[in-house]
Design a protein that fits this description.
Distance between the termini: 68 Å
Mean pLDDT: 87
Low-confidence stretches: none
Order of helices and strands: HHEEE
């Protein structure tokens, strides 16, 4: 008899099934990791905005709107993040931003400082409500 070499059909199918199962487990975990990174970019943008506000206040003795900060310091949000709303005045400011491409968890965050902080909001604490806005 000849010495047969190679894999049987059963062995090849078993390897394909194992790769398929591994892929089915890995892809959702990867998507969740991307959403965590996007949420981190929201929080980073808010921290950078806080710094820009304090610099603006130092120069002009009042807090600036997002438009003022863009003109004065070139502040810009990360890719995918958008301004939802905000207030600014002599005694405080607030900002609400969102990333609609986040599919799991929250997709918006906000922060307020001074007189614009609500009684439920801690002054200068970034809040990302569970569930967010879709």
């Amino acid at each position: 008899m000849r010495n047969a070499r190679g894999f049987t059909l059963i062995e090849v199918l078993l390897v394909v099934v194992i790769i398929g199962i591994s892929t089915a487990i890995a892809i959702p975990k990867f998507a969740a990791t991307k959403d965590k990174a996007k949420l981190a970019s929201l929080k980073t943008d808010l921290r950078n905005y806080m710094t820009a506000e304090e610099a603006y206040f130092s120069d002009y003795s009042q807090y600036g709107t997002s438009g003022n900060l863009v003109l004065a310091s070139g502040f810009a949000l990360s890719s995918g993040n958008t301004f939802v709303g905000g207030l600014a005045g002599a005694s405080g400011w607030s900002l609400h931003i969102r990333n609609p491409s986040i599919r799991t968890g929250t997709n918006d965050c906000q922060v307020a400082v001074g007189s614009t902080a609500l009684s439920t909001t801690l002054d200068g604490v970034i809040v990302c409500p569970a569930g967010g806005t879709r």
